[in-house]
Amino acid sequence: MEAISIGLLGLGTVGSGVVKIIESHQDKLMHQVGCPVEVKKVLVKNLSKERAVEVDSNILTTNPDDIIKNPDIDVVIEVMGGLEETKEYLQTAISHHKHIVTANKDLMAVYGPELLSAASENGCDLFYEASVAGGIPILRGLVDGLASDRITKMMGIVNGTTNFILTKMSKEGSAYEDVLKEAQDLGYAESDPTADVEGLDAARKMAILSTLGFSMNIDLDDVKVEGITDITEEDLQYAEQLGYTMKLIGIAHREGEKVEVSVQPTLLPESHPLAGVQDEYNAVYVYGEAVGETMFYGPGAGSLPTATAVVSDVVGVMKNMRLGVNGKSAVTPQYDKKLKDGSEIFSKYFLRLHVSDEVGVFANITTIFSDHHVSFEKILQVPVKEKIAEIVLVTHQASLDDYETILLSLRDLEAVEEIKSSYRVEGGARR
Ligand SMILES: NC(=O)c1ccc[n+]([C@@H]2O[C@H](COP(=O)([O-])OP(=O)(O)OC[C@H]3O[C@@H](n4cnc5c(N)ncnc54)[C@H](OP(=O)(O)O)[C@@H]3O)[C@@H](O)[C@H]2O)c1
């Protein structure tokens, strides 16, 4: 039985995990796909770097053509990261009829549709399970497990770094900058954490999830993004006092034919299934019309968890090879994209204001809300310093347009010293 030959682009955190799993699970792979799996060539930048896994130095190369144009390679595993250059490598590999497995969400969020159609035209598979939520099999869960259902809502904690930071801030009452530094020291946050803390990494994953879950091409630009950098200890204390937990949540919601996709700090009631997802863990809550509530939970990153998803994709490629159906399993989007506008996006909101501590101020604020038919669910008022009071309120459901108009009117009100913070508040599942 001839071995399946793998060409690995990258031998860092995920690449070394892939080599370990292929070596240590060879028996299981053999049993599932009926032939051995062999890593034949590995692309790296630096040939003399020390590696987390032992590999024969003869299989290392710095020339991508040794893999992407090599007639002996069946499957190219891309775990090097990057965008434009990486896309070119994969296009070349596809034109040389290689199947592709990638963990690269940046690439799939931007060039996914283009690469998938190139792969399908060339009779190649392109699988990317590890690109969203690392070791959690969420993409197969959506595409296969829930294939018969109509998914209306997905909510994801899909960035481990920000979940680690928010968990620590909430538990320990620490400031954002201090916890970020600790996360960097522990290796949970990169030295440049921008893509994580500004929500961009989560937005890429939500673009991939909503494209699959709603069967329409959602671009990265369609995802409204807000990060966690402005969240303060005070916000988290008030959230707890009101019975909420703060999380960076990706929300994808479909009503009728229209969808909204966003990533933003969100207050969840403590009873919400996602509220208990702690530290660097990831979870995706999926609501289907027939199945109801489901939740996928697990490690969203890390060498072996992510490599598990990558190698499982390789098994998928090999099963397709045996059946002779490579390139036929990608489902093209069924619907044209229709995005909701601000009058169609509804949510509750948390708002924290500093106002002059004078008679009539609260009545003026209430009037602005009631002029837009928005009422309050919860209100706290506390004096913070001489002549200044802090008002913290949670609204009932309001449209995004109404809420933004209310914020503008509040800013114009002389008695409002400062709008300290404002966050979306989620209830239970809203179909
Ligand atoms: N880390 C995770 O937990 C995780 C989870 C999910 C998805 N991912 C995704 O998986 C991919 C890899 O992540 P990683 O954490 O494994 O990255 P990493 O540790 O930085 O490893 C990248 C590897 O690719 C090689 N490489 C990078 N650019 C190259 C180039 N231009 N030419 C040749 N080799 C190049 C590097 O070579 P040298 O070693 O010689 O420098 C290194 O071996 C990324 O797309 C990431 O978003 C990672």
Automatic annotation (TrEMBL):
Keywords carried by this UniProt record: Amino-acid biosynthesis, Methionine biosynthesis, NADP, Oxidoreductase, Threonine biosynthesis
Kindly give the SUPFAM superfamilies that the UniProt entry links to this protein.
ACT-like (SSF55021), Glyceraldehyde-3-phosphate dehydrogenase-like, C-terminal domain (SSF55347), NAD(P)-binding Rossmann-fold domains (SSF51735)
E.C. no: 1.1.1.3
Q: Which domain of life is it from?
A: Bacteria
The cofactor named in the record is: a metal cation
The catalysed reaction is:
L-homoserine + NADP(+) = L-aspartate 4-semialdehyde + NADPH + H(+)
Which biological pathway? Amino-acid biosynthesis; L-methionine biosynthesis via de novo pathway; L-homoserine from L-aspartate: step 3/3; Amino-acid biosynthesis; L-threonine biosynthesis; L-threonine from L-aspartate: step 3/5
- Entry keyword Metal-binding: no
Q: What class of enzyme is it?
A: oxidoreductase
Q: Which PROSITE patterns match?
A: ACT, HOMOSER_DHGENASE
Which InterPro entries does this chain map to? ACT-like_dom_sf (IPR045865), ACT_dom (IPR002912), Asp/hSer_DH_NAD-bd (IPR005106), HDH (IPR016204), HDH_cat (IPR001342), HDH_CS (IPR019811), NAD(P)-bd_dom_sf (IPR036291)
UniProt keyword annotation of Repeat present? no
Any Pfam family = ACT
Q: Where is the ACT domain?
A: 350-424
The Gene Ontology terms for molecular function here are: homoserine dehydrogenase activity
Family under the similarity heading: Belongs to the homoserine dehydrogenase family.
What's the name of the protein? Homoserine dehydrogenase
Q: What is the organism of origin for this protein?
A: Cytobacillus purgationiresistens
